Amino acid sequence: MDIKQYMQDVGIRARAASRAMARADSATRNRALSLIAAAIVRDADLLRAANRRDLDAAAAAGLAPAMLDRLTLSDAAIATMVEGLTQIVALADPIGEISNMKYRPTGIQVGQMRVPLGVIGIIYEARPNVTVDAAGLCIKSGNATILRGGSEAIHCNRALAKLVAEGLAGAGLPQDAVQVIDTTDRAAVGALITMPEYVDVIVPRGGKGLIARLMEEATVPMIKHLDGICHVYIDAKADLAKALDIGFNAKCHRYGTCNTMETLLVARAIAPQVLPQLAERYLTKQVELRADPEALAILAGYPHLVAATEEDWRTEYLAAILSIKVVDGIDEAMDHINQYSSRHTEAIITEDYSDALRFLREVDSASVMVNASTRFADGFEYGLGAEIGISNDKLHARGPVGLEGLTSLKYVVFGHGEVRT
Amino acid sequence: MDIKQYMQDVGIRARAASRAMARADSATRNRALSLIAAAIVRDADLLRAANRRDLDAAAAAGLAPAMLDRLTLSDAAIATMVEGLTQIVALADPIGEISNMKYRPTGIQVGQMRVPLGVIGIIYEARPNVTVDAAGLCIKSGNATILRGGSEAIHCNRALAKLVAEGLAGAGLPQDAVQVIDTTDRAAVGALITMPEYVDVIVPRGGKGLIARLMEEATVPMIKHLDGICHVYIDAKADLAKALDIGFNAKCHRYGTCNTMETLLVARAIAPQVLPQLAERYLTKQVELRADPEALAILAGYPHLVAATEEDWRTEYLAAILSIKVVDGIDEAMDHINQYSSRHTEAIITEDYSDALRFLREVDSASVMVNASTRFADGFEYGLGAEIGISNDKLHARGPVGLEGLTSLKYVVFGHGEVRT
């Protein structure tokens, strides 16, 4: 098989399908989503059998248990896929919305209309549920999509692709609107991210390694984040109870997520009071603390205490490890964040009005919070209804990306025969 | 001079200055703009002298009269620069605006804040007024900027840079917030468009040749448009008077602009009626008509009539030339537009409600119009107050780009101690 030719054919078909999707009305797109959900319920046994083939191959290939776990399509995972589609149906249609129509002195009326981006390429790793989640968001937002899942999930993804195609056809939409790349050849990814004539944006979902690799080669723009080095700054005027709750939650609610706190900054004035009490909580989870000299002195006696190195400030642990630095106040905290943050999510804990406003305004990250856990930085928690990914970039979508991030605004002009003079 | 090192230093200084700009309040940024305007008025003689040096060098180098004309800083051009700055001062500050703050079931309140992008790189050709226009928009939107003007205008740009620096300093803002590249070495452009760590977006202003060159090398995202192959479609249900006025204005108001019509599509039912009358108007301007076979037959006898080739549908003439095609109706018109348009601006002339709505919804261009001249696609005409450029891309800004296109939205969260459970 000539992969380049195959991918170009996929691209041409996706581009053609995207025109039909952009024309389709809300009811038709929602009908497709409901039909896909029903087909998944009906064919749950077939999906499990396909998943079994993937799992057997993966086990034979010696995949790590954690990977096998992510690859498994459990009954709960199937139910969640179906529930996810149902929730997407219930979301308001973002497409066609016209806003800000205003008359100009010339007599024309100018505003903007929300329209689909066109063709979305999605590259992901083992989890087969992404196939359905991503297809659902793209169908809802009137886009065509090209899905490239992990090679470990190929059987399950093929089975899901058939059900998605059935749902699209049942609603009278082109089956090419959702294409699952039917090869495990890595060259397919290389082709997908370098055909801007057929693909409008790439959403990579996966680990830092995958995304860093894609960034080097991609000529299609990406909605992506590389890592989440998130900070919580406990201000001198912090409410102690809030500082303890958020300091613990932001680190320990889940270790492996990108919105987990990796570095804690504490104002010198409150450090001797707050750090020992926080350490008591961290100890219940055996969290390793990597501390700067001042914090080391305050935390002396904590059983999992290590001196922080420069490298720690740049590290996303994704584990029960936290780096801690004592700072003079909000200026030093923001300087540290500006230098080391991955611009994902930062929070200040304070009761001081002016410090709260300054932190919100001056910290240049996708999410900036006052008195809340960084763990809230997420499409569902923000009320987007669903999330296709998270962006640490500043152009186009920033932060959790929902349906709107898969759309663009074009200008529309209502005229009455006006000409320019 | 080591250009790479020089540009990196420029980048580092710009990044540092961007933090101060993001913190600066509206009054401070406006004061800088007013001081720059006053300095330009005061030093108009010096500017004209610097411009004279550029013009003498350009004349000695044998530059074409049209280029010399664009390079000339006339009294009118100076007055327009000053007036432009005054208008920018009067615009509402886009920075810091918080929108859509909504309570979530968890108790947190989530919304978005508009913030500067950071560092904007602007690459332009001869016109020295762009130095001041671009600096003004970047200062107003709280960004730092790196300006790289045409080498022909280097003396004038240096003189303007001094006045901009004076204005920034007078308002207490860092002079590095606007840096004019002080070398005519082309390697400086290559460096500027490949340092994403210091530059957030590049806005190229210039001809298709410049932009195509930049597109091949840039790793920094660009807000750009390559060309403007704009279409007007005269529907069977068009009002004849509107069709004649707009058909003439869209082509003949100005030939060299990107929003000028290059291809006219006419529904078969109305072509015999509208084309001869339009031709009468085009004849007053000696417009060359390149027609498909049907239009050729209808226009027989027109003195500047040529048979269109496939190449014509792909050509931006920027001249008194128009390609004309007779189509069956709106579907064929939209198919033609989808195939050949540069996605800049398209207009339909019709009194048919359903055709108007279909055209608005289904044509995938940055500006889509009903019964108005394509020449209206412009930041001033749309009410953006000023325009840094036009984008034919779908991500981030699309169509005329004003102050908002130089900003991004970050999420802000007001909490009260909430943690995720």
Automatic annotation (TrEMBL), chains A, B:
Q: What is its EC number?
A: 1.2.1.41
Note the NCBIfam families from the entry: PRK00197.1 (NF001221), proA (TIGR00407)
User: GO biological process: any one?
Assistant: L-proline biosynthetic process
Any one GO MF term held by the record is:
NADP binding
Per the entry, what this protein does is: Catalyzes the NADPH-dependent reduction of L-glutamate 5-phosphate into L-glutamate 5-semialdehyde and phosphate. The product spontaneously undergoes cyclization to form 1-pyrroline-5-carboxylate.
Q: What family does this belong to?
A: Belongs to the gamma-glutamyl phosphate reductase family.
Give the source's domain of life in one word: Bacteria
Q: What keyword terms does UniProt attach to this protein?
A: Amino-acid biosynthesis, Cytoplasm, NADP, Oxidoreductase, Proline biosynthesis
Q: Identify the metabolic or biological route this protein is part of.
A: Amino-acid biosynthesis; L-proline biosynthesis; L-glutamate 5-semialdehyde from L-glutamate: step 2/2
Where it sits in the cell: the answer is: Cytoplasm
Provide GO CC annotations from the record.
Answer: cytoplasm
Main localization of the protein described in the UniProt heading:
cytoplasm
Entry-linked Gene3D superfamilies = Aldehyde Dehydrogenase, Chain A, domain 1, Aldehyde Dehydrogenase, Chain A, domain 2
Q: What is this protein called?
A: Gamma-glutamyl phosphate reductase
Where does the record place the Aldehyde dehydrogenase domain? 13-288, 312-377
The answer to whether the entry has keyword Amino-acid biosynthesis is yes
Q: Which CDD domains match?
A: ALDH_F18-19_ProA-GPR
Does this UniProt record's set of keywords contain Oxidoreductase?
Answer: yes
What species does this protein belong to? Answer: Janthinobacterium psychrotolerans
Query: What Pfam families would the database entry show?
Result: Aldedh
